Amino acid sequence: MNKKAQSLGLGIMSFILIILVGFMSVNFLMTEVSNARVDLDCSNATGIEDGNKLLCLVVDFTIPYWIWIIMGIAISAVTARFIL
Amino acid sequence: MKPFSATLMMLVMGLVVVLSASVSAVVTTTINSPADNYVLLSNPQAFSGSSSSTGGVNIANMSLWTNGSASWGIKNTTFLIATDAHGNVQDDSDVLTIAVGGIIQPKYDVVLTKVTQNSSSTGNRTRIWYTTNGTLLATNVTAGVDEFLFNVQLFSGTNYTIEIDGQGADYTGTFKTLGAQSFPIIGSNINWIAGCTGENCVGSSTQVQTIESITTDRGFSSFTGSLSRTILNPTLWNIESCDENGVCEFAIANRTLYVESGSPRIEIESPHELMDYSRITDTEQLNITFRDSILDSCWYNYNGTNITIDGCTSGIKNATTFAFSSNDSNMTVWANDTDGNYNSTFIDWDYKVLENSRTHNVSSYETARETFSINLTANSSLTGVKLYYGGTQYTATQSGTIWTSSFDIPTSKIANNTIGWNFTYAGSTINSDYLTYQDIEAINLTYSTSETPYINFTFKDESDSSVINATIPTSTLTYWLGNGDVTKTLTYINTTANYYYAFNFTPVARPLNLDYRMQYESVGYPQRTSEPDTFVINSTTTDKTLYLLGTVDGIYVTFQIINQADQLLSGVDVTATRTIESTDVIVASGTTGSSGSVTFWLNPDFSHDFSFSKTGYTTVAYSETPTQTSYTVTLSGDTSSTNSSFRGIQRSVRPIADYLINDTVYTFAFNLTSTYWDTSSYGFNLRLANGTTFSGGSTGVEGTELTLDYNSTNQSVIYMDYWWVINGEYTNATVRWLVFNEDNADWSLSVFVDDLKAYLDSGIFGLDSFGRILITFLVLFISVGIMSYKYGFTSPMSITTLIFGIVFILDVVTGLIPDVGGVSNLPTFLAGLILVLTIINEVRTR
Q1: Measuring CA to CA, which residue among B327, B374, B333 is closest to residue B355?
Q2: CA B492, CA B262: separation in Å to the nearest integer?
């Protein structure tokens, strides 16, 4: 097996590892996001301050953003070895 | 062993013994009632507690402690084990010792273990009797002892007499009985001087064989008891249990008892705020409880009238009914006490479904068309109403506040049928608890000799109009009262020639729809068939003259009917009409079979009017003198290739949404109308991914919406297979809904988008429409700038594509861009148009 093939295999294993660890960590974030939304009263669009609204949007964006980061890192782990 | 070691060993062993004793003997006390912070409503108040002990040590007593201050003030130890015949309270120790014998009454089941006589006594026999009937229970004869041992079960509430005597000529068993007695009682061998209440037997002139004590073993390791006490002030209380070793324990926490004061309390159970169903003419039930230790009277004011609640007692629920008035759904309930304190509570209630009225006939007949209506007051949450008629469900349609269901009464409903309704309200089903009834009677068309039948068939010779007799090889008379959805059939055969055949109908006075097919013949007359269109008959006799044509006067004429594609047509109704005695008479009629032909016996000397008709084809009618034996008739109109079973069919399916949410109840509905075909029936089934099906029902009445409520649970997809039947031809189709699971949607990007829309709509950082557009412009400017500068996006195609994508996300997905000129998503359309033009231009220039 040549060096590039070995590198690709390592990249795929890294991809799987990053995906597994990353998505397991989402569970912790879900609880925190839910609590934060309750504490900030995010569902009450007319009754909260503008700053809280902005904070709510940031909180709402946490999980999708985290998933994007995980996917980005995982894909990078594979493609970097392709490029190399 | 050294002394010190021995001493230490003894100390350790002693400690072990002490610890063992302390560990093994545990008393636990539990308070049963009343609850903590209970409000006393009437005196005396009952207190209940339980105690238990372990380690073989029995419960000695339980005590109720009350005071109301910081230290216990009142102890009441009244959990007794036994009393003697004189009502003397015995002690509560485990081993019950009754000071002096006589008659005893155990309060609990005990075992008598020993009877001890006074040391100065010389008795040698002890006996135990049932006091009430004098039956001997046990005897112990032992000389020279003071203690007579037993093992006799004594039961609570039973009187036993204990007696010691000398078992000789000097003594006989005599004992004191309960109640007033004159002493002394002089016996043959013993004088019972008085009921001894003490060891000294005060009042006795002779002390003979005095019983020193009676010993029982009750062995209670657990005990539950109660007692009552008058409580006048708020009181802190607890229950204490002690075992026979003197170890006592209170219940784990003290409790507080409050005494009711001030105005009476009013607790209303019903009517409450929003109830399911009622009728405006119904009675409503008032369930209410008043609480006051000195409650005096109770009443309520409804519809302007004060009504007294008789027999209202504190703490006991009152149930009284009142006539509900549709325009008054509130009342005020009052109560007062003997101190003049008043209290009132206002109740205002409403109903999800309020029945204003219902309409239907109280009696009818099978096959008759009956309409059932119910007038309801409800909000838009009422989405469906169903009629239950004799156990069968029918769907009702809405018109304003009135829901109506109409159908022909099935022949299986000859009974006094119950009529109930149920309502689909906010996804739940509410049943009307009020039933009405409709009595259904049978209808019958029978051969009759009555002089006034409904219909009378006679026969004439077509050639000379002479009356002749005829036989009926077979006939089928189909009749009904309603729309014909439900019919009854009479098959009549008579091979004996008669001049007339009369048929009568019961019950009378109802117009009857009749559709018959009769084959008739006579000697010298070939058989003919009469099959006219449906007509109505009633109590005024309808005379039907059927004409026969002699064998020598006619010929057989066959008509073959084809369509424009020269295909044989079956099911074509053919009639041949002749003018006889100035009257147009259908002399022959029939329907083509699969051969596309029908044969008549006709008179070739006269002109006949022929008619050929079939649904979907243009009716052909012409006059002809049938001199030939066969004719071919072409019906123009739809060919089989154009007669689509979808023609004119309009279907509607609910839910309208393309997808469903899990764990949600949906009303699946299918409705069908046709502007072309006359559909025989239609219906639908729900089908799950695993093949399980649920019937949504079927109907033959076009425009009737069939519904089925179903919870999407955790299904992934739900199919609706709907079908309809036209002239026996079955057509079906399927629609499906994907079911989305929203369990984890709380963290999806949609939440961000939803919040963003909500915040933009409610206002955030003072952003108005101009601000939103400005942000959009900045996003576009920066994005395009970065992509151009960093990644070399400079071609018109790539830039317009990028702009379209960004505008689409900001406009359609997030709703950030406000409507321009009142047109929704106009920027997206414009960006898309520019993109298309750019693409066209790109293609054109290459």
Answers
A1: B374
A2: 87
Chain B residues lying within 8 Å of A56, measured CB to CB: 755, 759
3-class DSSP assignment, residue B607? coil
Burial of B507 (0-12, 13-18, 19+ CB in 10 A): exposed
Q: What is the ipTM of this complex?
A: 0.88
The two three-digit tokens of residue B41, written as one number: 């409503």
C-alpha pair distances (Å), B360 with each of B357, B363, B401, B439, B797 = 10, 9, 16, 11, 72
Residue B225, burial from CB neighbour count under 10 angstroms (0-12, 13-18, 19+): buried
For chain A, the residue count is 84
Q: Which of B499, B583, B510 is nearest to B540 (CA)?
A: B510
Residues in Cβ contact with B305 at an 8 Å cutoff, skipping those fewer than 6 apart: none
Chain centre distance of CA B87: 58
* Residues B590 and B611 sit within 8 Å (Cβ to Cβ): no
Please provide the DSSP assignment of B715-728 as one string. -SEEEEEEEEEETT
- Hey, is the C-beta of A45 within 8 angstroms of any chain B C-beta? yes
Are A50 and B764 within 8 A, CB to CB? yes
Residue of A nearest to B750 (CA): A60
Report the distance separating Cα B803 and Cα B794, nearest Å. Answer: 12
Q: Mean pLDDT of successive 10-residue segments in chain B (846 residues)?
A: 41 38 68 83 80 75 72 59 48 46 64 76 77 82 87 76 60 38 42 39 40 65 73 83 81 83 81 84 84 84 88 82 82 87 88 90 92 91 90 89 92 92 89 90 87 86 89 93 91 91 82 90 90 84 89 90 82 89 85 89 90 87 88 75 72 87 90 84 91 89 90 90 86 89 76 84 81 86 89 84 90 80 84 91 80
> Helix, strand or coil for residue B639?
coil
The nearest alpha carbon in chain A to B762 belongs to: A46
CB contact under 8 A, B752 and A61: yes
Residues in chain B closer than 8 A to A41 (CB atoms): none
The pair phi, psi for residue B236, each rounded to 5°, is: -90, 135
Q: Which residue has the tokens 């995982």?
A: A74
Q: Look up the pTM and report it.
A: 0.45
Could you give the strand order of the β-sheet that contains B350-359, starting from the edge strand earlier in sequence?
B274-279, B350-359, B369-377, B402-408, B397-399
Does B764 reach chain A within 8 Å, measured CB to CB?
yes
Report the alpha-carbon distance of residue B337 to residue B335 in Å, rounded: 7
Q: Give the containing element (helix H, strand E) for B291.
A: strand B283-291
Count A/B contacts: CB-CB distance under 8 Å.
39
Whether B743 has its CB under 8 Å from any CB of chain A: the answer is no
Task: Nearest chain B residue to A38 by CA: give it.
Answer: B746
- Measured CA to CA, the distance from residue A50 to residue A60 in angstroms comes to 15
